[in-house]
């Protein structure tokens, strides 16, 4: 159809690749940074990151950046900053950094905003928040990053050549000239098994949108981030020397998708494809899979009932082949806005619903 | 057309409150269409189903149609969204070869824009849908042109690869004669290695009324039967005897797998119908069971010496190591040749998990709530909401905007009932159709829960949680 409306004509006119949007997910897990402190304190990592952000912004005049923090219990936007809920908290005290004549103003703005949000985030973290968990809200942060990219892509295609307005993300955008987005995760935490399903959901969403998820691992090891970067064709790097953070950022993570086609990107030697079981959130390499709903369990459940879909399952026949089963009856459509009951799988309702 | 008035009344139920008096006016008939000659299955012809977009537009208070267009767009997005996704059975492993006619017959323009382009578009949609419905299945694509069979994409479980290859076809045009026999023989070879526990299927999209074959196609059909391969054909022109015979004999006498598309919509329906796993005609309708499966890791093996794979005894560096016995296989899903463990990629399974734990629909936020919570920007994408009108009081019923559509929020805000955050329509659509996560629920676990397991519980898989 390109031939009909002559869009290739426009493409030919454009010089060079389009702008790119980089969304950085910064893992701010306090436990992990405390461990990392002797080699790479958070403050140093942030300053390295700012240099990297500036380099990204400098490489194309329309490049955009967004930073989201994946904290111990929540995901928070660091840049751009969400609007304060009440009007009276206006940022009238412009930081002196903004008036520094020696600094390119956009760089100063981002630096100021990022540091302010980060300070705010750290000061609002209670001791209770830290003591109750040792992981990070990676799934939430990735979801935030993806929604932001989705919105930015929609806005970009609206403001530029009027392409088909609807459902660009659903059919997999094939934009070579449009906004190119990617996600960079700077991860320090291990074990994300309890977020297995949401993380895999974001992974497939990113794959569908053709957004690569790059992982820069400073500490710890998670199976699912490896899978995320492998599925989305991103870069995965585990740093042996976190001190060299800036060097790695600049050399491996700065090129956008267009440039990467001409480079040999670092790859993972071994990709771990283990899964987390639904019953204990344990990472397993051999599991028991319900042939109806494909749930994974680490051991056959007692009573031979699938915990997810409540189907009675034949047991003992472990080596058996996948079987064809008559489809389940259709679920009744639930009316929107009605008092929600958990899905009609016959499960135990949650007390608060 | 006599029934069109009643039709309108029935429809206007749905659109209560919507100011679209002339919507669908008289262009839609709901009565049974007098089928012109051929069989049942037919609903209405394309020309009977015209919806004029300009009929549904109403001018806003300021005389512009911007708000109305915006409202319609939002209503459209929302309507698609409110459809409930029903968890379907997805356990089956299928192996399917899609054969596309790329011959001279595809240049015809009876399907718009051309048969060729439309087929490629529907084929891409088919690929996406096929992998959504059958996450651990395999697919390959073969084309028929110039009297030979062309391999378009190899058997694999990666939808993006197939779609890329299909996209490349768009640059070309249909030419030469199709050869059914060549294509079938090539598919037979491609399906030869498919493990016995999966299905072996061929779907042919056939535009031509002829086939130029090098030999006797009946022999090919015989060998298809021996290989337990089932063939379905979607014709674009008219019934062809050999296709009917092909479908009938490979489907144990069932003729339901051959159909001819009447129009674009029907064509799409026919193709999409194949994405549902087929019924088995084997003797024992085996019961549901718990399968033991391994999730092997992939190794590139660069720098190491080459070794033989256990499946084909070919020398290779990379591969997947069986999680039980460490034998190397070259592709997944597979059955470990040494210990018999079914090996699959866990990411293939995970692709369907959002069907198990669907994200609940979000609710519309009235102005009064938006006012009392003072929500200004979307929680996830930070885009600003429309200003809260000044004339809204905590009590006051706000003035309604003209051209309001049912199902859309008057304040353009949508709220997740679990976490209570407000989102914009784009994030609503995105979260429900693509991400299947609520950014708010995933983004904040301080609200009383101790760990992530309970977190998931809030999304509806309560039973898993409560048992544990
Ligand atoms: Zn378990
Ligand atoms: Zn189940
Ligand atoms: Zn092999
Ligand atoms: Zn084995
Ligand atoms: Zn939004
Ligand atoms: Zn929520």
TrEMBL record, chain A:
Coiled coil: none
Keyword vocabulary terms for this entry: DNA damage, DNA repair, Metal-binding, Nucleus, Transcription, Transcription regulation, Zinc, Zinc-finger
Segments of this protein annotated with the region Disordered: 321-353
GO cellular component: transcription factor TFIIH core complex; transcription factor TFIIH holo complex
Compositional bias segments (type: Basic residues): 326-335
InterPro entries: TFIIH_Tfb4/GTF2H3, vWFA_dom_sf
Gene Ontology terms describing biological process: nucleotide-excision repair; regulation of DNA-templated transcription
Cell inner membrane keyword on record: no
Superkingdom field: Eukaryota
GO MF annotation, one: zinc ion binding
Subcellular locations according to the entry: Nucleus
Biological role stated in the UniProt entry: Component of the general transcription and DNA repair factor IIH (TFIIH) core complex, which is involved in general and transcription-coupled nucleotide excision repair (NER) of damaged DNA and, when complexed to TFIIK, in RNA transcription by RNA polymerase II. In NER, TFIIH acts by opening DNA around the lesion to allow the excision of the damaged oligonucleotide and its replacement by a new DNA fragment. In transcription, TFIIH has an essential role in transcription initiation.
Assembly information from the UniProt record: Component of the 7-subunit TFIIH core complex composed of XPB/SSL2, XPD/RAD3, SSL1, TFB1, TFB2, TFB4 and TFB5, which is active in NER. The core complex associates with the 3-subunit CTD-kinase module TFIIK composed of CCL1, KIN28 and TFB3 to form the 10-subunit holoenzyme (holo-TFIIH) active in transcription.
Family under the similarity heading: Belongs to the TFB4 family.
This protein's name: General transcription and DNA repair factor IIH subunit TFB4
Organism: Hymenoscyphus albidus
TrEMBL record, chain B:
Main location per the UniProt record: nucleus
Highest taxon of the lineage: Eukaryota
Pfam families tied to this protein: C1_4, Ssl1
Biased composition (Basic and acidic residues): 449-462
Cellular compartment(s): Nucleus
GO-annotated cellular components: transcription factor TFIIH core complex; transcription factor TFIIH holo complex
Domain VWFA: 95-274
Zinc finger (C4-type): 322-339
Acidic residues bias spans: 1-16
Region feature (Disordered): 1-45, 449-468
GO annotation terms (biological process): nucleotide-excision repair; regulation of transcription by RNA polymerase II; transcription initiation at RNA polymerase II promoter
Keywords (A to Z) from UniProt: DNA damage, DNA repair, Metal-binding, Nucleus, Transcription, Transcription regulation, Zinc, Zinc-finger
UniProt xrefs under SUPFAM superfamilies: Cysteine-rich domain, vWA-like
Molecular function terms, GO-annotated: zinc ion binding
Function per UniProt: Component of the general transcription and DNA repair factor IIH (TFIIH) core complex, which is involved in general and transcription-coupled nucleotide excision repair (NER) of damaged DNA and, when complexed to TFIIK, in RNA transcription by RNA polymerase II. In NER, TFIIH acts by opening DNA around the lesion to allow the excision of the damaged oligonucleotide and its replacement by a new DNA fragment. In transcription, TFIIH has an essential role in transcription initiation.
Similarity remark: Belongs to the GTF2H2 family.
Protein name as annotated: General transcription and DNA repair factor IIH
Provenance organism: Hymenoscyphus albidus
Lineage, broadest ranks: Eukaryota, Fungi, Dikarya, Ascomycota, Pezizomycotina
């Amino acid at each position: 159809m390109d031939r009909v409306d002559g869009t290739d004509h426009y493409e030919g006119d454009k010089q060079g690749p389009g702008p790119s949007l980089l969304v950085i997910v910064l893992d701010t897990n306090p436990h992990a940074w405390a461990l990392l402190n002797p080699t790479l304190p958070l403050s140093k990592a942030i300053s390295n990151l700012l240099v990297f952000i500036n380099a990204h912004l400098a490489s194309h005049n329309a490049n955009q950046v967004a930073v989201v923090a994946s904290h111990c219990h929540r995901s928070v936007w660091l840049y751009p900053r969400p609007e304060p809920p009440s009007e009276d908290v206006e940022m009238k005290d412009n930081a002196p950094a903004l008036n520094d004549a020696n600094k390119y103003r956009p760089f100063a703005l981002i630096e100021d905003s990022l540091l302010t949000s980060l300070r705010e985030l750290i000061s609002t973290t209670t001791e209770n928040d830290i003591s109750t968990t040792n992981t990070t809200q990676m799934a939430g942060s990735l979801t935030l990053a993806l929604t932001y990219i989705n919105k930015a892509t929609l806005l970009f295609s609206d403001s530029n050549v009027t392409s088909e307005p609807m459902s660009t993300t659903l059919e997999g955008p094939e934009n070579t000239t449009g906004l190119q987005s990617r996600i960079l995760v700077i991860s320090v935490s291990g074990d994300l098994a309890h977020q297995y399903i949401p993380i895999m959901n974001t992974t497939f969403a990113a794959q569908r949108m053709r957004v690569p998820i790059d992982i820069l691992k400073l500490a710890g090891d998670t199976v699912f981030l490896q899978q995320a970067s492998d599925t989305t064709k991103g870069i995965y790097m585990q740093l042996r020397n976190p001190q060299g953070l800036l060097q790695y950022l600049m050399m491996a993570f700065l090129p956008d998708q267009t440039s990467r086609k001409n480079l040999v990107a670092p790859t993972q030697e071994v990709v771990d494809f283990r899964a987390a079981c639904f019953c204990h959130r344990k990472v397993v390499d051999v599991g028991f899979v319900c042939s109806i709903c494909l749930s994974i369990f680490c051991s056959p459940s007692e009573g031979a009932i699938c915990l997810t879909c409540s189907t009675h399952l034949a047991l003992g026949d472990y080596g058996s082949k996948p079987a064809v089963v008559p489809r389940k009856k259709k679920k009744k459509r639930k009316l929107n806005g009605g008092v929600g009951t958990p899905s009609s799988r016959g499960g135990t309702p949650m007390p608060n619903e | 057309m006599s029934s069109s008035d009643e039709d309108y009344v029935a429809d206007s139920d749905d659109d209560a409150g919507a100011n679209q008096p002339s919507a669908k006016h008289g262009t839609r008939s709901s009565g049974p269409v007098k089928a012109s000659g051929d069989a049942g299955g037919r609903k209405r012809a394309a020309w009977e189903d015209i919806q004029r977009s300009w009929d549904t537009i109403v001018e806003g208070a300021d005389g512009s149609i911007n708000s109305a267009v915006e409202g319609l767009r939002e209503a459209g997005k929302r309507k698609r969204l409110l459809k409930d996704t029903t968890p379907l059975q997805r356990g089956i492993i299928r192996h399917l070869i899609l054969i596309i006619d790329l011959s001279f017959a595809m240049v015809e323009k009876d399907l718009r824009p051309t048969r060729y382009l439309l087929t490629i578009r529907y084929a891409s949609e088919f690929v996406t849908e096929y992998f959504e419905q059958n996450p651990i299945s395999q697919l390959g694509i073969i084309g028929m042109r110039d009297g030979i069979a062309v391999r378009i994409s190899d058997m694999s479980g990666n939808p993006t690869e197939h779609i890329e290859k299909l996209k490349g076809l768009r640059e070309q045009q249909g030419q030469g004669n199709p050869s059914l026999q060549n294509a079938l023989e090539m598919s037979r070879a491609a399906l030869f290695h498919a493990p016995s526990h999966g299905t072996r299927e061929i779907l042919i999209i056939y535009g031509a009324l002829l086939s130029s074959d090098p030999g006797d196609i009946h022999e090919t059909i015989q060998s298809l039967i021996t290989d337990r391969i089932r063939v379905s054909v979607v014709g674009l022109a008219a019934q062809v005897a050999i296709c009917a015979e092909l479908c009938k004999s490979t489907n144990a006498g069932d003729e339901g797998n051959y159909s001819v598309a009447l129009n674009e919509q029907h064509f799409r329906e026919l193709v999409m119908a194949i994405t549902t796993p087929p019924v088995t005609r084997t003797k024992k309708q085996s019961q549901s069971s718990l399968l033991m499966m391994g999730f092997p890791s992939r190794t590139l093996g660069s720098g190491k010496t080459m070794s033989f794979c256990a499946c084909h005894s070919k020398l290779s560096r990379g591969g997947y190591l069986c999680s039980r016995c460490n034998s190397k296989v070259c592709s997944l899903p597979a059955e470990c040749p040494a210990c018999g463990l079914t090996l699959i990629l866990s990411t293939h399974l995970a692709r369907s998990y959002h069907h198990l734990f669907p994200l609940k629909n979000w609710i519309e936020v009235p102005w009064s709530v938006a006012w009392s919570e003072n929500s200004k920007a979307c929680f996830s994408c930070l885009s600003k909401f429309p200003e809260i009108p000044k004339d809204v009081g905590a009590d006051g019923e706000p003035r309604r905007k003209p051209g309001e559509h049912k199902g859309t929020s008057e304040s353009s805000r949508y709220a997740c009932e679990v976490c209570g955050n407000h989102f914009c329509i784009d994030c609503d659509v995105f979260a429900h159709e693509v991400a299947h996560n609520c950014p708010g629920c995933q983004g904040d676990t301080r609200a009383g829960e101790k760990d992530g397991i309970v977190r998931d519980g809030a999304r509806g898989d309560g039973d898993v949680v409560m048992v544990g």
